[in-house]
Amino acid sequence: MKKHKFYLLAAIIISAAGLVYCSKQKDNLNNSESEKTASSRSTEAVGTTSTPIQIYGVWHAGNEACGWSTERNMTEFDAANHWLIDRGNGQPSVNLVVLSFVNPLKLLNKTTDAQTLNGLPRGMTQAVVNYFKTRGIRVMLSIGGITYTNDWNSALAQNATQLGLNAAEVAVNMGVGIEIDYEQSNAPNLTGLQSFITAYRSVLPYDASGNNHAARLTIDLAAGDRWLIDICRKATADWLRTDTPVLDYANAMVEARQASSAAAAQANWQEHIDGKSNYSPVIPPLAPCKFTGAVYLVTGKSAAPECNNFNNSLAKSTGTYVQSVVPNGAGTSPGMLGYMYWAAECPSSRRICTTPPNSCENGVGTGATFYNIQIPMPTLRQQ
C-alpha cells in the first residue's frame, strides 16, 4: 500500500475513533527514482539572483484540533498565541494566518448548530480575525482539510456555485481571503471545483495588487506532484498561470512527516517547478512565484527547530533555494513566494501545542527577522 493511502486510512480511523486530530494531508511516497532525479535537479536549479520572501505564514488549528467549535476568550487566546503577533521585539512573527478548517458542506447550507454559526465554526469570529489584522497580519479561512474531503465532494455535487458565492460572502463580510483545501486524490470533482472558483470570482475578481483581502483565493497542492495529481494538473494548467491568473497562488503542503533534509524538501518543490512530462496527461511546470513550501512546527511531542531553533531549521537550510530557484518552463522571476508552517496552537492531541512554554518566537520569529519579512505582506510577484 502506498504510504499516502496508509495515512489517509489512518486519518479516517482516528476520526472514527473520536480522537483529536486534524491534518493537512500529505504526499509521502517512497523515494522513487523520479524523486531522486528531482533532488538532483533542485541542486542544479538554484540561480545567482535572489528574490525576497513575500509570504511567511502559519496555518492555525485553534485549540480544538482544527474544530474551532467554541468561541474563544480573547485574553486566553492572546496568552496562547501572543508569539504570532510579537516575536520578542514588538513585531509579528508572520505576515499571514490561515484559520483551519471550515466544513464546506456546512458553509453551503449555512448551518447553525452547537459547533457552527451560519456555516462557520463558532470559534472563527471577527474578534480572532481582527486580533491578527490589527497587527498587519493578513488572514484567510481554509475550507476543507483531509477530514472534510467527503463534505467537499457532497457540497460540490449539490451546488458548487452556491458554495462559491457563500465563500465570497464570508470573505467580504470578514475581510479575509479563502483557501481551497480539497484533498480528494481519486477522481476529484474538477467540474464542481471550477464552478466554485467561477462563482467566487464573479463576486471578487482576481486582484493582482492584493489590496482587497477578500479577493485572495488560493489552493493547496501536495508537497510534490505525486499526490492530488488531477487537482495539481488542473490547477497548474488553468488556475495558476502567470498570463491569465485565476487563483493567487498554491501552497505545497507538508509531507506525512518532516522532510529529512533540505534536499528532500527541495526535491518535492522542484517537482512543481519542473512539472511531470512523463505523466499522461502531463502536469505542466508551475512558476516559482505561484507557490509556497511548507514545514512542520512540531513533530510528535517535541518542537521542531522551525519552532525553537531557526538556525537548525529547514526554513533556514532551504532558504537559498526558496529565494533563488529558477523557473523551468513557467514564469520568469527566480524564487518561490515563501513558507507556510503547519500548524499554530494545537492541531493534534498527539503533538505538543505551540503555546507557552513551547511558543515559536525563536524559530518562526527569528526567521522573520533573518529574512526581513515585510509586514503587512507586500504585493506578490506576478511573473
UniProtKB/TrEMBL annotation:
SUPFAM superfamilies recorded: (Trans)glycosidases
Highest taxon of the lineage: Bacteria
Protein name: GH18 domain-containing protein
